[in-house]
Protein backbone atom coordinates (compact mmCIF):
# COMPACT_ATOMS: atom_id res chain seq x y z
CA UNK A 1 0.00 0.00 0.00
CA UNK A 2 1.35 3.45 -0.97
CA UNK A 3 2.32 5.69 1.93
CA UNK A 4 0.66 9.10 1.61
CA UNK A 5 1.51 12.53 2.93
CA UNK A 6 -1.43 12.18 5.32
CA UNK A 7 0.15 9.05 6.81
CA UNK A 8 3.36 10.99 7.44
CA UNK A 9 1.39 13.86 8.97
CA UNK A 10 -0.46 11.51 11.34
CA UNK A 11 2.74 9.86 12.57
CA UNK A 12 4.53 13.20 12.97
CA UNK A 13 1.57 14.76 14.75
CA UNK A 14 1.19 17.62 12.27
CA UNK A 15 -1.16 18.45 9.41
CA UNK A 16 -0.57 17.53 5.75
CA UNK A 17 0.27 21.08 4.70
CA UNK A 18 3.04 21.19 7.32
CA UNK A 19 4.53 17.98 5.90
CA UNK A 20 4.45 19.44 2.41
CA UNK A 21 6.15 22.63 3.58
CA UNK A 22 8.77 20.61 5.42
CA UNK A 23 9.45 18.54 2.30
CA UNK A 24 10.01 21.76 0.34
CA UNK A 25 12.26 23.13 3.11
CA UNK A 26 9.98 26.09 3.78
CA UNK A 27 11.38 28.76 6.10
CA UNK A 28 7.95 28.94 7.72
CA UNK A 29 8.59 25.53 9.33
CA UNK A 30 10.99 25.18 12.26
CA UNK A 31 14.01 22.87 12.06
CA UNK A 32 12.54 20.85 14.93
CA UNK A 33 9.34 20.21 12.98
CA UNK A 34 11.30 19.39 9.81
CA UNK A 35 13.31 16.81 11.75
CA UNK A 36 10.11 15.30 13.16
CA UNK A 37 8.65 15.02 9.64
CA UNK A 38 11.89 13.55 8.29
CA UNK A 39 11.87 10.81 10.95
CA UNK A 40 8.23 9.98 10.14
CA UNK A 41 9.04 9.77 6.43
CA UNK A 42 11.95 7.42 7.10
CA UNK A 43 9.87 5.27 9.44
CA UNK A 44 7.09 4.88 6.87
CA UNK A 45 9.35 4.66 3.81
CA UNK A 46 7.72 7.70 2.23
CA UNK A 47 9.33 8.99 -0.97
CA UNK A 48 9.04 12.48 -2.45
CA UNK A 49 8.47 10.68 -5.77
CA UNK A 50 5.23 9.23 -4.44
CA UNK A 51 3.23 11.91 -6.24
CA UNK A 52 4.65 10.96 -9.60
CA UNK A 53 4.07 7.28 -8.89
CA UNK A 54 0.46 7.97 -7.97
CA UNK A 55 -0.13 9.94 -11.16
CA UNK A 56 1.46 7.24 -13.31
CA UNK A 57 -1.08 4.73 -11.99
CA UNK A 58 -4.04 7.10 -12.33
CA UNK A 59 -6.98 6.99 -14.69
CA UNK A 60 -5.44 8.71 -17.70
CA UNK A 61 -1.78 9.37 -16.98
CA UNK A 62 -2.13 12.60 -18.96
CA UNK A 63 -2.25 16.32 -18.31
CA UNK A 64 -3.76 19.11 -20.40
CA UNK A 65 -1.95 22.31 -21.37
CA UNK A 66 -4.28 25.26 -21.97
CA UNK A 67 -2.98 27.98 -24.30
CA UNK A 68 -4.39 31.53 -24.05
CA UNK A 69 -7.30 32.47 -26.32
CA UNK A 70 -5.25 34.62 -28.71
CA UNK A 71 -4.59 34.35 -32.43
CA UNK A 72 -0.83 34.95 -32.60
CA UNK A 73 0.42 32.16 -30.30
CA UNK A 74 2.75 30.83 -32.99
CA UNK A 75 4.48 34.22 -33.15
CA UNK A 76 5.39 34.08 -29.46
CA UNK A 77 8.47 31.88 -28.81
CA UNK A 78 7.54 31.66 -25.12
CA UNK A 79 4.68 29.24 -25.75
CA UNK A 80 6.65 26.80 -27.87
CA UNK A 81 9.59 26.88 -25.48
CA UNK A 82 7.52 26.26 -22.35
CA UNK A 83 5.57 23.50 -24.10
CA UNK A 84 8.89 21.80 -24.87
CA UNK A 85 9.86 22.08 -21.20
CA UNK A 86 6.48 20.72 -20.07
CA UNK A 87 6.78 17.76 -22.44
CA UNK A 88 10.28 17.07 -21.16
CA UNK A 89 9.19 17.06 -17.51
CA UNK A 90 6.09 15.02 -18.35
CA UNK A 91 8.18 12.31 -20.02
CA UNK A 92 10.33 12.08 -16.91
CA UNK A 93 7.15 11.30 -14.95
CA UNK A 94 5.69 8.91 -17.56
CA UNK A 95 2.93 11.40 -18.34
CA UNK A 96 1.51 12.32 -21.73
CA UNK A 97 0.45 15.85 -22.69
CA UNK A 98 -2.68 17.03 -24.50
CA UNK A 99 -3.19 20.58 -25.76
CA UNK A 100 -6.24 22.84 -25.62
CA UNK A 101 -6.01 25.80 -27.98
CA UNK A 102 -8.54 28.21 -29.45
CA UNK A 103 -9.24 31.81 -30.46
CA UNK A 104 -11.94 32.43 -27.83
CA UNK A 105 -12.62 31.56 -24.20
CA UNK A 106 -15.81 29.71 -25.20
CA UNK A 107 -13.88 27.55 -27.64
CA UNK A 108 -11.22 26.79 -25.04
CA UNK A 109 -13.76 26.03 -22.31
CA UNK A 110 -15.50 23.52 -24.57
CA UNK A 111 -12.21 21.70 -25.17
CA UNK A 112 -11.25 21.71 -21.50
CA UNK A 113 -14.63 20.26 -20.47
CA UNK A 114 -14.45 17.47 -23.06
CA UNK A 115 -10.85 16.60 -22.14
CA UNK A 116 -11.67 16.28 -18.45
CA UNK A 117 -15.18 14.81 -18.61
CA UNK A 118 -14.06 12.11 -21.04
CA UNK A 119 -11.10 11.35 -18.72
CA UNK A 120 -8.50 12.21 -21.34
CA UNK A 121 -6.54 14.20 -18.73
CA UNK A 122 -6.31 14.30 -14.94
CA UNK A 123 -5.55 18.02 -14.59
CA UNK A 124 -4.36 21.12 -16.41
CA UNK A 125 -1.51 23.58 -16.73
CA UNK A 126 -2.92 26.96 -17.81
CA UNK A 127 -0.40 29.10 -19.70
CA UNK A 128 -1.96 32.46 -18.89
CA UNK A 129 -3.05 34.28 -15.76
CA UNK A 130 -4.51 37.74 -15.13
CA UNK A 131 -8.19 38.17 -14.39
CA UNK A 132 -10.39 35.17 -13.74
CA UNK A 133 -12.24 33.78 -16.77
CA UNK A 134 -14.81 31.02 -17.42
CA UNK A 135 -12.09 28.38 -17.71
CA UNK A 136 -10.59 29.12 -14.32
CA UNK A 137 -14.04 29.35 -12.73
CA UNK A 138 -14.90 25.93 -14.16
CA UNK A 139 -11.68 24.39 -12.85
CA UNK A 140 -12.14 25.84 -9.37
CA UNK A 141 -15.89 25.13 -9.12
CA UNK A 142 -15.48 21.50 -10.22
CA UNK A 143 -12.36 21.08 -8.05
CA UNK A 144 -10.20 20.03 -10.98
CA UNK A 145 -6.46 20.09 -10.22
CA UNK A 146 -4.65 22.82 -12.16
CA UNK A 147 -1.58 25.02 -12.10
CA UNK A 148 -1.29 28.48 -13.63
CA UNK A 149 1.88 29.82 -15.22
CA UNK A 150 1.74 33.47 -14.22
CA UNK A 151 0.31 35.61 -11.42
CA UNK A 152 -3.35 35.50 -10.48
CA UNK A 153 -5.48 38.45 -9.42
CA UNK A 154 -8.54 36.83 -7.85
CA UNK A 155 -8.57 33.95 -5.35
CA UNK A 156 -4.79 33.62 -5.29
CA UNK A 157 -4.96 31.50 -2.10
CA UNK A 158 -7.02 28.90 -3.99
CA UNK A 159 -4.59 28.52 -6.87
CA UNK A 160 -1.11 27.06 -7.34
CA UNK A 161 0.88 29.34 -9.64
CA UNK A 162 4.40 29.26 -11.08
CA UNK A 163 5.88 32.56 -12.16
CA UNK A 164 8.80 34.98 -12.10
CA UNK A 165 8.85 38.11 -9.96
CA UNK A 166 7.87 40.42 -12.82
CA UNK A 167 7.70 43.52 -10.65
CA UNK A 168 11.27 42.95 -9.50
CA UNK A 169 12.32 42.44 -13.13
CA UNK A 170 10.81 45.75 -14.16
CA UNK A 171 12.61 47.40 -11.26
CA UNK A 172 15.93 45.76 -12.16
CA UNK A 173 15.55 46.87 -15.79
CA UNK A 174 15.19 50.52 -14.78
CA UNK A 175 17.99 50.19 -12.25
CA UNK A 176 20.39 48.75 -14.84
CA UNK A 177 19.74 51.58 -17.29
CA UNK A 178 20.24 54.07 -14.46
CA UNK A 179 23.57 52.42 -13.61
CA UNK A 180 24.66 53.15 -17.19
CA UNK A 181 23.96 56.84 -16.64
CA UNK A 182 20.55 57.16 -18.31
CA UNK A 183 18.41 59.85 -16.68
CA UNK A 184 15.27 59.79 -18.84
CA UNK A 185 13.63 56.41 -19.28
CA UNK A 186 10.54 55.08 -21.02
CA UNK A 187 8.60 51.82 -20.74
CA UNK A 188 7.29 50.69 -24.13
CA UNK A 189 4.31 48.36 -24.42
CA UNK A 190 1.79 47.31 -27.06
CA UNK A 191 -0.83 46.51 -24.43
CA UNK A 192 -2.23 48.02 -21.26
CA UNK A 193 -3.72 44.77 -19.94
CA UNK A 194 -2.44 41.56 -18.41
CA UNK A 195 -0.52 40.87 -15.22
CA UNK A 196 2.86 40.70 -16.98
CA UNK A 197 2.47 44.25 -18.26
CA UNK A 198 1.11 45.63 -15.00
CA UNK A 199 3.76 44.05 -12.80
CA UNK A 200 6.75 44.90 -15.02
CA UNK A 201 5.52 48.46 -15.51
CA UNK A 202 4.81 48.90 -11.79
CA UNK A 203 8.34 47.78 -10.97
CA UNK A 204 9.69 50.24 -13.55
CA UNK A 205 7.64 53.12 -12.10
CA UNK A 206 8.58 52.44 -8.50
CA UNK A 207 12.28 52.24 -9.31
CA UNK A 208 12.40 55.40 -11.45
CA UNK A 209 10.57 57.29 -8.71
CA UNK A 210 12.90 56.02 -6.00
CA UNK A 211 15.92 57.05 -8.08
CA UNK A 212 14.46 60.47 -8.89
CA UNK A 213 14.53 59.78 -12.63
CA UNK A 214 12.05 60.71 -15.32
CA UNK A 215 10.09 57.73 -16.58
CA UNK A 216 7.00 57.47 -18.73
CA UNK A 217 4.84 54.93 -20.55
CA UNK A 218 4.96 54.90 -24.36
CA UNK A 219 2.40 53.03 -26.43
CA UNK A 220 3.89 51.22 -29.40
CA UNK A 221 2.48 52.79 -32.57
CA UNK A 222 3.37 53.07 -36.23
CA UNK A 223 5.31 56.24 -35.41
CA UNK A 224 7.15 55.63 -32.16
CA UNK A 225 7.69 58.80 -30.10
CA UNK A 226 10.20 58.26 -27.29
CA UNK A 227 10.69 61.97 -26.61
CA UNK A 228 13.98 62.66 -24.82
CA UNK A 229 14.33 59.17 -23.37
CA UNK A 230 17.74 57.54 -23.81
CA UNK A 231 16.91 54.31 -21.99
CA UNK A 232 13.99 52.10 -23.06
CA UNK A 233 12.47 49.17 -21.19
CA UNK A 234 10.40 47.12 -23.67
CA UNK A 235 7.72 44.61 -22.65
CA UNK A 236 9.21 41.63 -24.53
CA UNK A 237 11.84 40.67 -27.09
CA UNK A 238 9.53 40.57 -30.11
CA UNK A 239 8.33 44.10 -29.45
CA UNK A 240 11.91 45.22 -28.74
CA UNK A 241 13.00 44.12 -32.23
CA UNK A 242 10.09 46.07 -33.73
CA UNK A 243 11.05 49.11 -31.64
CA UNK A 244 14.70 48.96 -32.74
CA UNK A 245 13.64 48.75 -36.39
CA UNK A 246 11.23 51.66 -35.94
CA UNK A 247 13.91 53.79 -34.31
CA UNK A 248 16.35 52.97 -37.10
CA UNK A 249 13.83 54.28 -39.64
CA UNK A 250 13.82 57.56 -37.67
CA UNK A 251 17.61 57.72 -37.79
CA UNK A 252 17.97 56.75 -34.11
CA UNK A 253 20.68 54.19 -33.47
CA UNK A 254 20.65 51.46 -30.80
CA UNK A 255 22.72 51.55 -28.63
CA UNK A 256 24.64 54.67 -29.71
CA UNK A 257 21.66 57.01 -29.27
CA UNK A 258 19.29 54.89 -27.19
CA UNK A 259 19.74 51.81 -24.99
CA UNK A 260 17.10 49.06 -25.09
CA UNK A 261 16.48 46.39 -22.47
CA UNK A 262 13.84 43.68 -22.83
CA UNK A 263 12.44 40.47 -21.34
CA UNK A 264 12.20 36.71 -22.09
CA UNK A 265 15.60 35.99 -23.72
CA UNK A 266 13.88 34.47 -26.75
CA UNK A 267 15.73 32.91 -29.68
CA UNK A 268 15.45 36.25 -31.49
CA UNK A 269 17.46 38.07 -28.81
CA UNK A 270 20.77 36.88 -30.29
CA UNK A 271 19.82 36.52 -33.95
CA UNK A 272 19.50 40.15 -35.07
CA UNK A 273 22.02 42.92 -34.38
CA UNK A 274 22.22 44.61 -32.05
CA UNK A 275 21.88 41.54 -29.84
CA UNK A 276 19.33 42.27 -27.11
CA UNK A 277 20.11 42.90 -23.48
CA UNK A 278 17.25 40.94 -21.98
CA UNK A 279 16.08 39.06 -18.91
CA UNK A 280 16.21 35.28 -19.12
CA UNK A 281 13.01 34.23 -17.33
CA UNK A 282 14.13 30.59 -17.16
CA UNK A 283 11.27 29.18 -19.25
CA UNK A 284 12.57 25.62 -18.90
CA UNK A 285 12.28 25.81 -15.12
CA UNK A 286 8.84 27.44 -15.39
CA UNK A 287 7.68 24.43 -17.42
CA UNK A 288 9.34 21.84 -15.20
CA UNK A 289 8.04 23.36 -11.96
CA UNK A 290 4.49 23.62 -13.31
CA UNK A 291 4.52 19.89 -14.08
CA UNK A 292 5.99 19.06 -10.67
CA UNK A 293 3.35 21.10 -8.86
CA UNK A 294 0.50 19.59 -10.89
CA UNK A 295 1.78 16.07 -10.23
CA UNK A 296 1.78 16.89 -6.52
CA UNK A 297 -1.76 18.30 -6.63
CA UNK A 298 -3.01 15.24 -8.49
CA UNK A 299 -1.62 13.02 -5.77
CA UNK A 300 -2.69 15.30 -2.90
CA UNK A 301 -5.62 17.46 -4.06
CA UNK A 302 -6.33 18.73 -0.55
CA UNK A 303 -2.81 20.06 -0.02
CA UNK A 304 -2.27 23.80 0.35
CA UNK A 305 -1.96 26.01 -2.72
CA UNK A 306 1.10 28.19 -3.23
CA UNK A 307 2.94 30.48 -5.60
CA UNK A 308 6.30 29.18 -6.81
CA UNK A 309 8.72 31.90 -7.91
CA UNK A 310 11.33 30.99 -10.53
CA UNK A 311 14.54 33.10 -10.62
CA UNK A 312 15.54 35.26 -13.57
CA UNK A 313 18.88 36.49 -14.93
CA UNK A 314 19.88 39.58 -16.89
CA UNK A 315 21.75 38.80 -20.11
CA UNK A 316 23.79 41.87 -21.05
CA UNK A 317 24.40 42.15 -24.78
CA UNK A 318 24.78 44.87 -27.45
CA UNK A 319 21.55 46.88 -27.13
CA UNK A 320 22.60 48.76 -23.98
CA UNK A 321 25.47 51.19 -23.55
CA UNK A 322 26.75 53.64 -20.93
CA UNK A 323 26.23 57.34 -21.59
TrEMBL record:
InterPro entries: HTH_LacI, LacI/GalR-like_sensor, Lambda_DNA-bd_dom_sf, Peripla_BP_I. GO terms for molecular function: DNA-binding transcription factor activity; transcription cis-regulatory region binding. Keywords: DNA-binding, Transcription, Transcription regulation. It holds the Pfam family LacI. Residues 3-57 form the HTH lacI-type domain. Coiled coil: none annotated. The keyword Metal-binding does not apply. This is LacI family transcriptional regulator. It comes from Pseudolactococcus paracarnosus.
Amino acid sequence: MTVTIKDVAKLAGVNASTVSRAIHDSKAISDKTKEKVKKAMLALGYSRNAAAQTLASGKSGAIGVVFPPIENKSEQPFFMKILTAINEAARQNNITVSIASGHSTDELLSQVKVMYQEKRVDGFIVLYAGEEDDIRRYLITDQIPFVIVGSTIERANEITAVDNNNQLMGSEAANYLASLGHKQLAFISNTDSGEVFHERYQGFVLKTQSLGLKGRLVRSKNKLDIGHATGLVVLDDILAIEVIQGLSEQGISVPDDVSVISFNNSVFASLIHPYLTTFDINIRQLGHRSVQKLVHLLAYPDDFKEKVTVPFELKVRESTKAV
